[in-house]
């Protein structure tokens, strides 16, 4: 009988683990009586994660239905998806001029950016950005500390403006604030944080207006700038992509977390009665990470969810987004190791550390096409201290592929659900014309297999003819410029420069 000590060390996902950490170190005993072989576990995993066309269609239908339910009347949270009205009712036109800043908080990094806009002819005259990683302790600390850190980064960046950038006399520098967490927006420049996601657990922000939090921190820094637009990263991506291509109708983020937004008719938003939109439209942030209807889930998903800081929440996100794919794989491998000596007699201790296999690691393993899967072997060894044989490496790759295929295919079904809802409500808005879905995020950008599964799923669901109308485009870092553009189109000063 072999004995493993599951050492729960601190990782980048510390807050996610807080419940586990409170537990004492546990002893994992491997039973002498062999119960389930890796092949049997793999077969069951493939069955549980399968995404045949009828299932994908059901998911797309359920996504459409939950979107509609979420737009229904009442103060919410009601049934269906959060479907957050963003108060963005006019997308940038290209006429925007002047200097604008963007501040982007949404994952482990925060970015600051400035852009000098030159109107229709000159468009983006100059742009510059800086990126700072957020110290781990700030993700679990007090609200003021996090906002002070952001404001001081912004102050430092703003103090280094070179001659290419100039603000019109008498004006404050305006900011588009990309805040990529579920926020109940109350106007274009204010919104209350509903909850943290993606492993953040900062105390004292939920229930507060995040723009007020930033303003207070800027005041403490003596920084006199003005937030003119509060935007989600999906919304910033839509605005940024639409600036160059007017056919963009939907934007999707597939990175650490996930979300999608789209252009909705005001008449289809019963929950927003008092707002008058000059365009008759508004961008809705679906917060589709909260979706959960009819997903093919496994025991590994349920265990990961139960150990998370937000059990029962963000189930779609936990199935398709970058923060979680590697962790699901690790949980499957641990079960194979515990049940039937995958990786030798004892369970490799490091493999018991939650989040030790990040999604970038499983992605790198899947790019190994060598005969002996050398790279898979060295990654398993470097990241999890695992010594492996060729047959074991092959099993690992099959597990990765199963989880990534499910994630990519379901993301594709979600996209089709949005397109379907838009087309059902306004015939011709998507089909019979060119409609662009702009996607950003490291998972989509850097994981070729995930991207291919997503594209296959969209194509399979739409069929060849309809998929000719739908263009899926990668928009890199569009959300920063998008947020600056939204600050410009919602500037407190008039647009006459
Ligand atoms: C958040 C969304 C965000 C998405 C992508 C999710 O966890 O709830 O607001 O857009 O991550 O960053």
UniProtKB/TrEMBL annotation:
Protein name: Phosphotransferase
A GO CC term attached to the entry: cytosol
GO molecular function: ATP binding; D-glucose binding; fructokinase activity; glucokinase activity
Gene3D superfamilies registered for this protein in UniProt: 3.30.420.40, 3.40.367.20
Group of enzyme by EC: transferase
Domain Hexokinase N-terminal, chain residue ranges per copy: 42-243
Entry keywords, A to Z: ATP-binding, Glycolysis, Kinase, Nucleotide-binding, Transferase
């Amino acid at each position: 009988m072999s004995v493993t000590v599951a050492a729960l060390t601190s990782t980048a996902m510390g807050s996610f683990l807080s419940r586990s950490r409170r537990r004492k170190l546990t002893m994992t005993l491997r039973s002498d009586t062999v119960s389930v072989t890796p092949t049997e576990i793999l077969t069951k995993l493939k069955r549980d994660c399968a995404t045949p066309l009828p299932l994908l269609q059901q998911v797309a239908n359920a996504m459409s239905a939950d979107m509609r339910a979420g737009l229904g009347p009442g103060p919410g949270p009601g049934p269906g998806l959060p479907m957050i009205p963003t108060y963005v009712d006019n997308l940038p036109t290209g006429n925007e001029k002047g200097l604008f800043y963007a501040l982007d908080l949404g994952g482990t990094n925060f970015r600051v950016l400035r852009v000098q806009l030159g109107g229709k002819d000159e468009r983006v005259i100059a742009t510059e950005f800086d990126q700072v990683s957020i110290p781990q302790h700030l993700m679990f600390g007090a609200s003021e500390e996090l906002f002070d850190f952001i404001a001081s980064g912004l102050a430092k960046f703003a103090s280094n403006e070179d001659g290419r950038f100039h603000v019109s006399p008498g004006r404050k520098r305006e900011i588009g604030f990309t805040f990529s967490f579920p926020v109940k927006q109350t106007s274009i420049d204010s919104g209350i944080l509903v909850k943290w996601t993606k492993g953040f657990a900062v105390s004292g922000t939920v229930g507060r207006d995040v723009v007020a939090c930033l303003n207070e921190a800027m005041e403490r820094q003596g920084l006199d700038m003005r937030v003119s637009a509060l935007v989600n990263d999906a919304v910033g991506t839509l605005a940024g992509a639409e600036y160059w291509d007017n056919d963009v109708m939907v934007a999707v983020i597939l990175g650490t977390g996930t979300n999608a937004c789209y252009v909705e008719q005001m008449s289809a938003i019963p929950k927003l009665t008092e707002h008058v939109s000059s365009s008759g439209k508004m961008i809705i942030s679906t917060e589709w990470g909260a979706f959960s209807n009819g997903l093919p889930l496994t025991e590994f998903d349920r265990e990961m969810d139960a150990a998370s800081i937000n059990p029962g929440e963000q189930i779609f996100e936990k199935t398709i987004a970058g923060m979680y794919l590697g962790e699901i794989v690790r949980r499957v491998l641990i079960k194979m190791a515990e049940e039937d000596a995958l990786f030798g007699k004892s369970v490799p201790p490091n493999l018991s550390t939650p989040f030790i296999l990040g999604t970038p690691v499983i992605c790198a393993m899947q790019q190994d096409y060598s005969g002996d899967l050398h790279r898979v072997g060295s990654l398993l060894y470097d990241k999890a201290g695992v010594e492996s044989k060729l047959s074991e490496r092959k099993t690992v790759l099959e597990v990765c592929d199963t989880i990534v295929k499910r994630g990519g295919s379901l993301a594709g079904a979600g996209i089709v659900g949005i397109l379907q809802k838009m087309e059902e409500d306004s015939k011709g808005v998507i089909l019979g014309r060119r409609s662009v879905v702009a996607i950003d995020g490291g998972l989509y950008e850097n994981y070729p297999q995930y991207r291919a599964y997503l594209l296959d799923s969209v194509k399979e669901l739409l069929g060849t003819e309809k998929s000719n109308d739908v263009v899926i485009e990668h928009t890199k870092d569009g959300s920063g410029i998008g947020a600056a553009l939204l600050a410009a189109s919602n500037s407190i000063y008039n647009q006459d420069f």
